[in-house]
Amino acid sequence: MKLFRPVLFVSGILSFIMVGLLLVPAFFALMTDDEEYSAFFLSSGLAALAGLLFMLPSYGHRFALNARQLYLLTSLSWLSLSFYGALPLMLSHHPLSLTDAVFEAVSGITTTGSTVMSSLDALPHSILLWRSMLQWVGGLGVIGMAVSILPFLQVGGMRLFQTESSDWSEKSLPRFHAMARSLLLVYLGVTLACALSYFAAGMTLFDAINHAMTTVSTGGYATDDRSMGRFSDGILWISVVFMLIGGMPFMLYIRFLNQPNLDVFRDQQAQGFLLLVLALVGLLTLQQLLTTERQPFEVLTHAAFNIVSVITTTGYASTDYTLWGYFSISFFFIVTFIGGCSGSTSGGMKIFRFQLSWLFLRDQMNKLVHPRGIFSIRFNGKAVADDIMVSAVAFSFLFFLILALATLALAATGLDFVTALSGAATALTNVGPGLGDMIGPAGNFAAVSDIGKWILGFTMILGRLELLTVMVLLTPVFWRG
Amino acid sequence: MKLFRPVLFVSGILSFIMVGLLLVPAFFALMTDDEEYSAFFLSSGLAALAGLLFMLPSYGHRFALNARQLYLLTSLSWLSLSFYGALPLMLSHHPLSLTDAVFEAVSGITTTGSTVMSSLDALPHSILLWRSMLQWVGGLGVIGMAVSILPFLQVGGMRLFQTESSDWSEKSLPRFHAMARSLLLVYLGVTLACALSYFAAGMTLFDAINHAMTTVSTGGYATDDRSMGRFSDGILWISVVFMLIGGMPFMLYIRFLNQPNLDVFRDQQAQGFLLLVLALVGLLTLQQLLTTERQPFEVLTHAAFNIVSVITTTGYASTDYTLWGYFSISFFFIVTFIGGCSGSTSGGMKIFRFQLSWLFLRDQMNKLVHPRGIFSIRFNGKAVADDIMVSAVAFSFLFFLILALATLALAATGLDFVTALSGAATALTNVGPGLGDMIGPAGNFAAVSDIGKWILGFTMILGRLELLTVMVLLTPVFWRG
Lengths: 481, 481
Ligand SMILES: [K+]
Ligand SMILES: [K+]
Description:
Keywords (chains A, B): Cell inner membrane, Cell membrane, Ion transport, Membrane, Metal-binding, Potassium, Potassium transport, Transmembrane, Transmembrane helix, Transport
Oligomer: homodimer
Transmembrane segments (chains A, B): 7-31, 37-58, 70-91, 136-161, 182-201, 234-253, 273-290, 323-343, 388-412, 454-479
Membrane topology (chains A, B): Multi-pass membrane protein
Number of strands of chain A: 2
Bound molecules: potassium ion
Protein name (chains A, B): Trk system potassium uptake protein
Main location (chains A, B): membrane
């Protein structure tokens, strides 16, 4: 009980946040003659009830959270948010099954964006809005987690990003509040800028708001089965800019606000990320120009849009890139793994892990040639502690181990090799679309079996929580305390 | 020149070894009315000439090899053996192109076993014998390298296997010679036992000798397009036993000879390997019995044979396992990566790296729960030094990085996703067959483009030399000295 009481208390707080969020589509439905208002009000009421039940046992107690409680809390929070997110989808007038609703909500809150729903343009607008809001909140949550919780927990090399805000002692509480406020403001501001740009470029206000929420959160839910394929080149380029903003460390924007000086963007991870995007866009554009007869600007636009969409793990599609020939299929599959920057809304393995692993390999090779040489590994101008290095490198082993297990589990449900492998990859990296006719950019996840959907949903949460945050709950030593 | 002279000298020695080896199929062809004797005698003569040219500049000099020279020598040795191996294939009466001959020889000497040749049963027997001999010599070479060179070079965690024989000082020369002799004897003995077993179970003498050489070396070249599919269940089970023997550390056999006590087999890597094989065979047998109506013993035989064939990276096929349903395709693809034990003839990532990575992850997770706890990682009863741990773990990052690059390169030559990915994987792990109609267990590599074959051949050598041995040659610091 000592382990669980604070966890329940925080779950209660989260429940009340969901009560408020659910009221948004509820009132929106009321205002727009949309019969789904009842589903949202009912869900909101149920969330309020659950919140009270969670908070009562701990009412009046004071506590501080320790590492074990933070692990438990983090995993449980994403689970409970997913279940609240699924509620209105089950209670609507065209209800989804429990499995489908939970899949859709997990895919939303983890900003994966794989969907079981089709004919999106015919869905009630309140449901579309709710899907977009889940991604937006999930994106905010993941930045908050990366800034405050994961560096403290030292998961997968994240201690590299330790700041004063990831110090969980009582004295740092005011700093913590200030950071949370800045983050919320920046996130709101960027989303607003994105929505206004989309609107100015010709989207309807509803589409602009929805896509702004799923762009900045690199979530990828759209309001139409054609994803972004129905919009103009101008809108695609706006999307490129805001997906990139969503894929960079939000700490940089907060620092820039506190100290408006472009020097804050001299960040090795962000710069490496942008350079890599440029190189990949150049490579794919060149390859397409050499092997097809498409117009250069069209090629550049779609190469840039789709690469940025996959590398930021947004998962929008402008065209079905798996029809661009064999090279592009292998290419996009591999780009799926990379991911954006740590401290952004992106998933994937993350740029800094590739940078650290690369620096580490170079160091290893130097040592092979000069066994007694001393080399120090520096990142962003600072020496990197050995344990950070090593846990960042070990992350890739665990990543591919989980990928293999998830692929096997999906294959055992009857999925073919390409669907199983790309489905596991797209879930683990929180990208969204897979490969093949079924779950590729032109398909959706409706036809996956129920057990397959639960495997994919669990894999999404594993990926979103940087694997170890969840894995540690499966060790005996965690429960022995 | 100081760097190259000893390298040239050792290349000369290797050339003369090849002179001797080439004389075997030459005399065999003479004795069996096979017109290919000329190709082998001519190749042998060319090798002798090259050997003289290599040795002349260093005649009369004394030298000891340093780490840089060992790296260069190791990579060059495999390259030069491949070219000597290709010579008779180009000089035969039905000559292969340079690309095809080098591909076949690289695939042989690295014990990969991917082939561009078909209608094998119609080929001259001397050519078949030469292909088998290449694999047999390659298998011996890789054990020798793993025992004596790689632990000294500290590549990819191999320092774990450091013994007195991997000490390259002058005083250890007699010990080194004794070790080399024991290894050769054990390898010969195991091959002889395998050949006799095959012969007793009904193979022709020629088939028995050839398959013994490609079984013990986990190479996988066969003398018929049907691979092992045409043999009895008894032969398949004999093959299982000797593939497993080939996939275990040969040091154990040598220790057993010096000290006949079963305790020498209490080796954590060998035991983990055998347990994993048992678990995988059990899993696949169960899955096949649950989903098909095949006979239990037939299922068990083919599951055991094909799993042992893939995990030891032999690459024989008894049936086309890609026709066993979707699960088995994903299953065999993933088993491809595992590989056998270090110090065996197997390729792949190797059991000890999974064991060390797993121990490392457990340690990391313990530290996540108890940040100030002290945990020590023990393997085979001894504490594992941090640097060994870390370089074993880092190996998997480099492995998947090279896999991604090779896949992209192959896709750029026009191969589809499954062929490119499985081709890169099967080359890097030295298994042999890939997935898909083209390069799957029922196909061969003849239709791959020339540039694709060179990419695959280079990938095989990278895999065979544990990646870093070759990669280090690509660093500027290596050449700066
Ligand atoms: K996404
Ligand atoms: K092989």
